[in-house]
Amino acid sequence: MRPGSPGGQSRPSSSTTRxxxxxxxxxxxxxxxxxxxxxxxxxxxxxxxxxRLTVLGRDDDMVVIGGExxxxxxxxxxxxxxxxxxxxxxxxxxxxxxxxxxxxxxxPAPGARVDEAELQELVRGTLARFxxxxxVRVRDELPRNATGKVLRKELRG
Length: 157
Description:
By secondary structure, the protein is an alpha+beta fold. It folds into two domains: 23-58, no CATH class; 63-155, ANL, C-terminal domain (GMP Synthetase, Chain A, domain 3), CATH 3.30.300. It has helices spanning 72-80, 116-126, 152-155; strands spanning 43-47, 53-58, 63-65, 68-70, 85-95, 99-108, 135-138. The strands form three sheets. A three-stranded mixed beta sheet has the order 5-6-7. A two-stranded antiparallel sheet has the order 1-2. It has a two-stranded antiparallel sheet with strand order 3-4. The longest helix has 11 residues, at 116-126.
């Protein structure tokens, strides 16, 4: 059966080449932004020079810190790679000095000790300085709803 046919696969195989094009079917220029005339999903991404799309997150997840756009999901991805981290959620909070700041909520891996400075340095060495969480809070678990989605509103100060 072919993809998309009744009873068949709903998406093409991973070896299928996919092209991302802006409105009008013209080739997308790496580093450019466009809005499709189709359905606006709210997803944000960047094309590299070879046309590969890196999804940054959603436009409603973006936080502006010191005039710079920060995607908490990118910070979470970096922190999740650290062996002392089992789970992580990064949220924005109001800050008197900076307006907004990032706070990382970390559930330690079994038997691990979380070192705030080490995690901040990891982010600093991978992302821009404005993406470094100002604070790392260690938690036993992240609050979740019945479907398992992290309740970020409950994490905000």
